[in-house]
Design brief:
The complex is a heterotrimer of chains A (166), B (290) and C (806).
Chain A lengths: L3 E7 L2 E7 L5 H8 L18 E4 L2 E4 L12 E3 L13 H8 L9 H14 L5 H7 L11 H15 L9
Helix pairs in contact in A: 2-5
Chain B lengths: L6 E3 L4 H11 L3 E4 L5 H6 L7 E4 L9 E4 L2 E5 L4 H6 L1 H6 L1 H7 L5 H6 L2 H6 L7 H7 L3 E6 L2 E6 L4 E3 L2 E2 L6 E7 L7 E7 L9 E9 L5 E9 L6 E2 L1 H7 L6 H13 L11 H23 L3
Chain C lengths: L7 H8 L11 H4 L16 E7 L5 E7 L1 H5 L3 E5 L1 H5 L5 E3 L5 E3 L5 E2 L5 E7 L2 H10 L1 E6 L26 E2 L2 E2 L5 E8 L1 H9 L3 E12 L8 E7 L4 E6 L4 H12 L6 E4 L15 H13 L3 E4 L2 H7 L2 E13 L5 E11 L29 E8 L6 E2 L8 H19 L3 H8 L8 E2 L5 E2 L4 H12 L1 H16 L5 E11 L11 E2 L2 E2 L2 E7 L5 E5 L8 H13 L6 E5 L16 H28 L6 E4 L2 E4 L2 E7 H8 L12 E6 L8 E11 L5 E11 L6 H20 L31 E4 L17 H19 L12 H10 L5
Parallel strand pairs in C: 1-16, 14-15, 17-20, 18-19, 27-28, 34-35
Antiparallel strand pairs in C: 1-7, 2-6, 2-8, 3-7, 4-5, 9-10, 11-19, 12-17, 13-14, 13-16, 17-18, 21-22, 23-33, 24-25, 26-27, 26-32, 29-30, 30-31, 33-34
Classes of the chains: A alpha+beta (166), B alpha+beta (290), C alpha+beta (806).
Amino acid sequence: MAKSQIALTVNGESVDALVEPRTLLIHFLREQLNLTGPHIGCETSHCGACTVDLDGKSVKSCTVFAVQANGADIRTIEGMANADGTLHVIQEAFREMHGLQCGFCTPGMITRAWRLLQENPNPGESEIRYGISGNLCRCTGYQNIVRAIQYAAAKLNGVPFQEAAE
Amino acid sequence: MIPPSFAYHRPSSVKDAIGLLAGFGEDGRVLAGGHSLIPMMKLRLAAPPNLVDLGGISDLKGIATDGGDIVIGAMTTQHELIGSDLLGKKIPLLRETSLQIADPQVRYLGTLGGNVANGDPGNDMPAVMMCLNATYQVAGKSGERRIQARQFYQGAYFTALEPGEILTAIRIRPPDEGHGWSYHKLKRKIGDYATAAAAVVLTMKGTGEIGSAAIALTNVAETPLYAEAATRLIVGSKLDAATVKQAVTAAEAITAPASDRRGTPQYRTKMAGVMVARALAQAAQRARGG
Amino acid sequence: MNDMTPTSAERAEKLEGMGCRRKRVEDIRFVQGRGNYVDDIKMPGMLYGDFTRSPHAHARIKNIDTTKAAAVPGVVAVLTAETLKTVNLAWMPTLAGDVQMVLADGKVLFQNQEVAFVIANDRYVAADAADLVEVEYEQLPCNVDPFKAMADGAPMIREDLKDKHDGAHGTRKHYNHIFNWQAGNKTETDAAFAKAEVTIKEMIAYPRVHPCPLETCQCVASFDKIKGELTLYGTFQAPHVIRTVGSLISKIPEHKIHVIAPDIGGGFGNKVGAYSGYICAIVASIVTGKPVKWVEDRIENLSTTAFARDFFMLTEMACTRDGKVTGLRCYTIADHGAFDACANATKWPAGLFSIITGSYDFPAAHCSVDGVYTNKAPGGVAYRCSFRVTEAAYAIERAMDIMAAKLKMDPAEFRLKNLIRREQFPYTSAMGWEYDSGDYHVAMNKAMESVGYRQLREEQKTKQEAFRRGETREVMGIGVAFFTEIVGAGPSRACDILGIAMFDSAEIRIHPTGSGICRLGTKSQGQGHETTYAQIIATELGIAADNIMIEEGNTDTAPYGLGTYGSRSTPVSGAATAMACRKIKAKAQMIAAYMLEVHDDDLEWDVDRFKVKGNPERFKTMTELAWAAYHEVPPGMEPGLEAINYYDPPNFTYPFGAYICVADVDVDTGETKIRRFYALDDCGTRINPMIIEGQIHGGLTEAFAIAMGQEIHYDEEGNVTTASLMDYFLPTAVETPHWETDWTTTPSPHHPIGAKGVGESPNVGGVPCFSNAVNDAFAFLGSTNIPMPHDHWRTWEAAEKMGLHG
């Protein structure tokens, strides 16, 4: 099948590429752009390990064709750190709160958490759980992921983090 | 995991889209939000040689008022539905339903048009549209027409759409102010298709009697079901226990659920009934201002 | 010494040794998306492999036509069983003494079994071509019911074993029979039952489930024709075993095979054994001369790789009228699928199932397990189970509740009456296991007090009365589980995998400037080894954990080990780490004595230094000694500061715990809400409490999923109906309950640092706790046993059968 030309921005950099129409965005990112942060955990759009931020939306990049992302502005986990290379508050928070174990869901989870906190800078626990319901984790049981996002929210809002009693 | 090959087209107008589809015939399919079609293609259950992406057609977006109706562009995403203050105020049933569809990522891209037009009995919006007595605005080679949601669904993945027609907008007359509503969805986990779900809209007189009502069911047959008999039973009543029980029986009677990992047909029929009862109670409470 | 000198405590804190909540080293790369997982690997000229799989559960293959597939541009080769036969690899040995088809040889035995392997220059092309392999099948009657496997006339699954009456574990009594294995004393147990005052008998079924790690199984095989060397990257929980097995079956000498397990996205036992994909990728690389990558889909993973459980345990208990247990008997049918690919130690085809007497003082017990073949995927031992310990714990904890109900005793009180007492440790069970340590009563009482158990029972009573009066449609359940598990396989006298003893290893080298590297034979898939092993070394050697690099997974550099599963890393390699440290410390002490011109015995250890007794201003820190080891060793001593230890554990370890769950069930929908879950775990010495909590959260979430809806289900035609995440229940953050964790600490007396391991405890104790909660909710209405999974429709059906829907 003839390839299509696409032009988009990924993590702040302009990208020009040729893709088959059927090339999934996740494969384009991982294989052609060597951004192997977003992962593949299923083929039925359930697990969210492939989550990226596309034009201000959290999107499962396994369920988007690269051609649909023509002209888009995409951010992946690789674009999360600060310009000076230091970790983003959310990345720090995940480490601080032990919000990851095998690390496979983590890029998608952090990318989603980032957009979640844009949508709602001060989410309560149930809002966080609902807000990450498109991201599956098999290792952590979510509890420390929720704490990480609460911790990040507190830091971003400049308030002390209230550690809930266990 | 890997979809089959196809040729990709991205028209910028409804007219162009229709023209392309007419040319492709059975070899063309529309791509809306993609979150029903692309997973099917990845499992190789669908292999359309041509995809017509509607994402570049601005006429298919937007939520507007027209006379006493609200007209929602077919490419409006679930996320946009949830965020609409107009819809939240006038037709809160939509937001309540939308929040129970899939997950945040899918809602960012999944469209109302996609959810109502592909005939998947598991989709939530069709029953809600039947409940709201919505009208689908459709465009094709032979022009535009309107189809009532209550007449639209003919079988699993089989609707009143003619080949080459696309859904352009959904037109809804908002229920009267002060109405009660509820979408009660039983599911195995958040975002799952319904084990059984009931959509209810009703109005209540000052005396507590039901003035008007509509009840519809999701995923307990090959199509969404408008529960006409159950609806008639409750109008004029005060939703006393006996009447609700009758309505539940009437609703159960029209179901013919599939057997799957959500449960046996018998269970799902009973759950349709439970969802109807609970949706009625919640709608009534809201109508009373609770 | 003055006020500025740090105290011992301050110095110890800086080391971040055992007991502290050290932040994880591996997080730094993971939170930046810079992990190195198998599918991230790209090699020049790399090809991709994909399988054509059988739609049928049981069929003869009449013909395979690969012409169309091979003609697709970009396809390099198509392998079938015929191709593999030319290199004697159409079949491969399993870890359970059976053999398994790599590609279907004349027959397919389970749905989605591998039939052909397509190799192409692009993964999309490989997928297209895999669809074009044409296979002609002649369907055969299939059987997916283990209870029908040994019936007269049952479909014969394994024609290749037709005339083999002797299996890997003794005589086979039917063509679909694999083994019978027994433990305990049948005579004594039968006698106990014969004179028992009260008995119960119940079929306790543990359905088939699957570990479903978020990353599926995958590998990149690269055979260098010129050197005759194979490099194999893969999702391997046991990389050395893969290397040895790979060498035995491929005939490539072991020193020419480099197996590397990079970052692994979760294992849970799914990634222990060898799969067709690995073998086919290796053969493909040999045949094509290029690296070949194989990555499976989720559906492939769920429907064909190592499943878990599928144990049907007819469990009986004998008891005195006043609640003292006198006997336990269990007859189990174990469904192993089409090939016995269980990763058990050789002597135990049913793993460590004989831990079934659990935490209770049974004077007599006996169990018998029959393994059978069916038309299902092969495997069996996986999913945080410690080799069938989850099954055993489920049986005993359910049986305890069932007996308590029959005796009209509170389930917690019944347990307290029968828990092994502190004075009895080390305790030898009726099955012959020597439990190392425990204070069960303290743990149980602590748990009960923490949740306010008595008040919960009172609340439950009130709610039961309200239900009977029709005031509520909710029933409340309190689940109790007190589990003992057996982990840390294992002592060489008892445990081997394919003849290799189950020791494990640590090799530590300290560099001149005082930092070091430790390489081990285990392999983390998320357990935080890079963080925790360094903590052990920090405490043992007084070198800051941040100054110790931990390496696992590269078989060229790591000392031989049996890998990570069955919670064995801490008990075995953790011990090896401590032992290696002590060798280094002993050498360092001699160097210190030499430098300080005192006798070895004149020195005492203080956190990070040797001080002269009575003269503490004279000391040498480990950092100084490291430098000295490279230029100032005593005459006759070798320079350098390193040691290796291969640790053969003297015994297993026995972590235990007390879990209590409160659940509310909506009788009209069958929905269960977990109101509260409290987990007290005793894993001996706690190396990193933060990581332990994370393990408990994760294991309990898996247990929740199993108990409340997870199932690998086959219909009567052998179709897998739960092969994708649409239907295989993985809870999101919304369904997952909040977890409360607590602990007691009874160190293992035989372990160098007293640690027992903890990764699997939550799955062992969690599942019965949830199941007991749901069962307890209905017990007051006369229900004896509602089987798992407790999903909505089955819970509703139980209520329906009890006439609760009016």
